[in-house]
């Protein structure tokens, strides 16, 4: 009798456990059945009522009514192609090349491969480019874009007024050696003045000059960090720790040196001072 009374709570707990399991199985079965029915008979999307038209886009090749339509289509394709290349062209004829290379030298001289990220470096270079090129773009807007939108000048005059400030900027920072090299490679007659230098010759000469200037600044940036690496390597070699990578030890010292010298301000100030037309 006592054993039967003691087993009643155990039977009660077992019954409650089996009841819970059975209820869970039934719920899972019902959910699976409803999901299967929804897959077999998906609900239809409600039809839109009203007069709001839905836009549609159609691309195709049709027959032109006249040669003028063909010429207009080719002009649109050429314009789209040029517009896709405009960002790269604008970056190459501005101070962006020098700034992005110098900032990349700073990142690699310290030894930081992913910090700061490349997006941050490119963004900083882009905004510094906007800062240094502001006087040039202001001249382009005042002499070309604004009069053209007002209808005071035609498209050819607007192009001439827009390209002249950009050419003056490129001439200011183009070295004579690179310009002579590109002129000789193009086999064109030697120009008598800057106005006779073609733009397609000036742009590569300007880019070569910017690369040379940026690498010269990068070497100057590398020297202090190279000294730190040499000192750390000498100390480790003298202590007999030849298996310990010197970069692992020198990295904190280079970061500390860069912070104590206020490196970012020095680098940005040096880059901006290398352009004499900053506002």
What secondary-structure arrangement, pairings included, does this model have?
Blueprint: H1 2-40, H2 67-92, H3 96-110, H4 118-132, H5 134-150, H6 155-172, H7 176-186, H8 199-238, H9 246-260, H10 263-273
Helix pairs in contact: 3-4, 3-8, 5-6, 7-8, 8-9
Task: Give the structure's gist in a few sentences.
The chain has helices at about 1-40, 65-90, 95-110, 120-130, 135-150, 155-170, 175-185, 200-240, 245-260, 265-275. By secondary structure, the protein is mainly alpha-helical.
Amino-to-carboxy terminus distance: 103 Å
Percent in helix = over 70%
Give the low-confidence spans: 1-12, 36-40
Task: Label the structural class.
Answer: mainly alpha
Order of helices and strands: HHHHHHHHHH
Mean pLDDT: 76
Could you tell me the radius of gyration in angstroms?
35 Å
Oligomer description: single chain
Keywords:
279 residues; mainly alpha; 10 helices; disordered N terminus; single chain
What does the model show?
With 279 residues, the protein is mainly alpha-helical. Helix content is 74%, strand content 0%. The protein contains ten helices and no strands. The protein has helices at 2-40, 67-92, 96-110, 118-132, 134-150, 155-172, 176-186, 199-238, 246-260, 263-273. Helix 3 packs parallel to helix 8, helix 5 (134-150) runs antiparallel to helix 6 and helix 8 (199-238) packs across helix 9.
């Amino acid at each position: 009798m006592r054993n039967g009374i003691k087993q009643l709570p155990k039977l009660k707990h077992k019954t409650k456990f089996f009841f819970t399991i059975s209820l869970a199985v039934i719920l899972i079965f019902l959910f699976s059945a409803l999901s299967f029915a929804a897959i077999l008979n998906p609900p239809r999307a409600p039809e839109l009522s009203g007069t709001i038209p839905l836009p549609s886009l159609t691309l195709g090749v049709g027959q032109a009514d006249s040669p003028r339509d063909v010429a207009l289509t080719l002009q649109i394709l050429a314009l789209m192609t040029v517009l896709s290349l405009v960002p790269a062209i604008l970056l190459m004829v501005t101070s962006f090349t020098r700034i992005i290379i110098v900032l990349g030298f700073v990142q690699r001289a310290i030894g930081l491969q992913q910090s700061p990220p490349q997006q941050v470096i490119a963004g900083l270079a882009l905004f510094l480019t906007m800062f240094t090129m502001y006087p040039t773009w202001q001249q382009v807007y005042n002499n070309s874009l604004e009069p053209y939108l007002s209808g005071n000048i035609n498209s050819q005059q607007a192009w001439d007024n827009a390209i002249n400030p950009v050419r003056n900027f490129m001439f200011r920072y183009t070295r004579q050696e690179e310009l002579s090299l590109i002129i000789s490679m193009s086999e064109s007659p030697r120009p008598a003045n800057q106005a006779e230098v073609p733009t397609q010759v000036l742009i590569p000469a300007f880019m070569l000059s910017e690369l040379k200037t940026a690498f010269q600044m990068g070497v100057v940036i590398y020297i202090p960090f190279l000294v730190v690496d040499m000192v750390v390597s000498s100390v480790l070699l003298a202590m007999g720790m030849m298996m310990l990578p010197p970069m692992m030890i020198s990295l904190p010292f280079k970061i500390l040196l860069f912070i104590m010298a206020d490196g970012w301000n020095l680098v940005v100030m040096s880059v901006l001072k290398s352009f004499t037309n900053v506002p």
